[in-house]
Amino acid sequence: MRLLPMLVIGLGLAAWSGAAAAQVDNGQPDHMKTPLDQWDNKPAEPRIGPGPAPMDWGGLKPDRGREEVFYFCAPCHSDTRIKAASKTREQWEALVERMLKTYPEYRRLEPDERETILGYLTRQYGPRH
Fold first, then answer.
1. How many CB atoms lie within 10 A of CB 113?
2. Structural domain for 84, as ranges
3. Total domain count for the chain?
């Protein structure tokens, strides 16, 4: 009696795999396969047109320290929240310190990295921005 459920499962798997193998390649990804399964060993076609879109860094203003701010702040906060906060250097410093104390498992900042982040936030999102 235990053989019957195994037989049914085996037949179901055989039917499913046969149906998957019989699918016509319509140019769409097969969501039952991993990306590596779908790689077909064709040489890459030459790139036509512009390259990839440039990184927008979450909409943060371009300046020295933007990348550090993005990687330090963006895992938890949107760029909107950062851009809306108009703070002095002391306020930004207190906020960064509060975040580090509130989330002790978050990575530590090296002194030069901390200075870069605070400088960027003060220049770009200080009271005068």
1. 15
2. 66-125
3. 1
Q: How far is residue 126's CA from residue 129's CA, in Å, rounded to a whole number?
A: 6
Say what the alpha-carbon torsion angle 27, 30, 36, 37 is, to the nearest 10 degrees: -100
| 43 in a structural domain | no
Least confident of 23-32, 35-44, 45-54, 62-71: 35-44
Report yes or no on 1 lying in a domain. Answer: no
Tens digit of pLDDT for each residue in 62-100?
A: 999 999 999 888 888 888 888 888 999 999 999 999 998
Contact 69, 117 (CB under 8 A): yes
CATH of the domain at 89: 1.10.760
Please tell me the predicted confidence (pLDDT) of residue 128. 74
Burial zone of 73 (CB within 10 Å; 0-12 exposed, 13-18 middle, 19+ buried): buried
